[in-house]
Amino acid sequence: MEPLGATTVFLVICVSSLLFLSAWRKMSGSRKLPPGPIAFPIIGNTLQLSMKNLPQHVEELSAKYGPIFTIYLGSERVVVLYGHEIVKEALIGLGDEFSGRGSMPIFEKISKGRGIVFSNGEQWKQLRRFALTTLRNFGIGKKSIEERIQEETRFLMERLRNTHGRPFDPTLFLNHTVSNVICSIVFGDRFDYEDKKFVTLINLIEESNKLLRSPWTALYVFFPTLMDYIPGPHQWIFQNAQELRRFVLERVKMHKESLDPNYPQDFIDAFLIKMEEEQKNVQSEFNAESLARSTIELFVAGTGMTSITLKYGLLILLKYPEIEEKVHKEIDRVIGQSRSPSMADRSQMPYTDAVVHEIQRFIALVPLGVPRAATRDVHLKQYLIPKGTTIFPSLKSVLYDSREFPNPEQFNPGHFLDENGAFKKSDFFMPFSAGKRICMGEGLAQMEIFLVLTTILQNFTLKPVIDPKGIDITLESGFMSNAPKSYQLCVLPR
């Protein structure tokens, strides 16, 4: 046994040394890579980076290394783009070269490379093209979806009236409202707010969003293989994903039983018809797994991001009642009380439109953007970024650019108004990213935020439960996204 033991130890040392050297060579890489802090083999920059607030640390690193620099999340090489010029040049000017989806271990485990958001190559192109066409066919960007949002806001107004001026947390109210809009497109119908399965699903999404902002998620990004074997809250994300998958598969089964190929009712119907058309194509990307993943992505993305933005918008207005009052006056002047707000009103409501844009700028919901990847070796500035490199396009650095938005740390609707009080567009406004991978739901989200917020303020005055001066609008910042802290408010009928 003695010689065997010595041989085993020797082999372990050799293998470990080879892995160490491989990781070191990968990290030292080409001299043409953008600069960055010194990384260690295996652990990368783990000891130097803030897992709790990486976006803030990225801002500090940019001050030292400039608008383009390299960091290592564990052994994963990441190039960070910081500032409007470099982000625009990469995502728009070199759109094809930066159209890949970057490494996101926690989502890669859930999606297994399927679906629209986390796929790459031909699969991504086909599924995204199909999804965009289908969403347009079912009303995105059209009057029909606007009417659907207006209908759902009427249910919300009823719920708000039933609070009878008592304090409440708006989180679930907003989640339910926004989710039902995407549900009508994906599943063909809305859910009753008391539906137990619907309530459970919304709670799962809310819980998962909170977990994704936790340090556990950051650890998973750094060390995915190790964290797979370690118990902790991050494991609940995978359990929640399985629950969502089971629900979607149930809905798909129901759709198969009622499907009329001549009259598709929703996204699932359209996908099932496409699957049938491509049945003989062995290389088709339209299969049961892609259907499940794409549906889940649309449902989850269409629920979480917009509702978080609306929740923060209400908190901002509680903090600044003078801004709320200006919006009230504009609503009274343009819309009045006899009809529902519509998207046609937006062009006549520059101040309200500016408030809506400023909320989205200020929250910088996904501060580092959803990671991209270089689809080929690409030159950017004086550097060479190798194919497959993960890219973090810092959206917050664009949304908080002081040249475009003076005093960006202050909430100010004037950032989107000219000297005459007219609404002013900005190329720096990219909360949904830019280029080939821009969020598919941008149009829907913009419509929802404007219509829901305007309808609430048409019907109610917001009342804080504490002095506005004491309201905390600082965000809970996680590795991947921002969100407001929990709060309560009262709404009083106008």
Walk me through the structure:
The chain is an alpha+beta fold. The longest helix is centred in the middle third of the chain and has 32 residues, at 288-319. The chain starts with a helix and ends with a strand. The model is unreliable at 8-30 (pLDDT under 50). The strands form 4 sheets. Strands 1-2-7-4-3 form a 5-stranded mixed beta sheet. The protein has a two-stranded antiparallel sheet with strand order 5-6. A two-stranded antiparallel sheet has the order 8-11. A hairpin with a 2-residue loop joins strand 5 (378-380) and strand 6. It has 17 helices and 11 strands. The protein has helices at residues 2-28, 54-65, 84-93, 105-111, 121-137, 143-161, 171-186, 196-212, 215-222, 224-227, 234-258, 267-277, 288-319, 321-334, 350-363, 395-399, 442-459, and strands at 68-73, 76-82, 100-101, 372-373, 378-380, 383-385, 390-394, 460-464, 475-477, 482-484, 489-493. It has one domain (83-493): Cytochrome p450. The relative contact order is 0.15. Helix 6 runs antiparallel to helix 7, helix 8 (196-212) packs antiparallel against helix 11 (234-258) and helix 11 crosses helix 13 (288-319).
Number of strands: 11
* Portion in helices: 40-55%
Identify the CATH class. Mainly Alpha
**Mean pLDDT across residues:** 90
State the end-to-end distance. 85 Å
Question: What letter string, H or E per element, gives the SSE order?
Answer: HHEEHEHHHHHHHHHHHHEEEEHHEEEE
What is the fold named in CATH at topology level?
Answer: Cytochrome p450
Ranges where pLDDT stays below 50 over 5 or more residues in a row are: 8-30
Largest sheet, order of strands side by side?
1-2-7-4-3
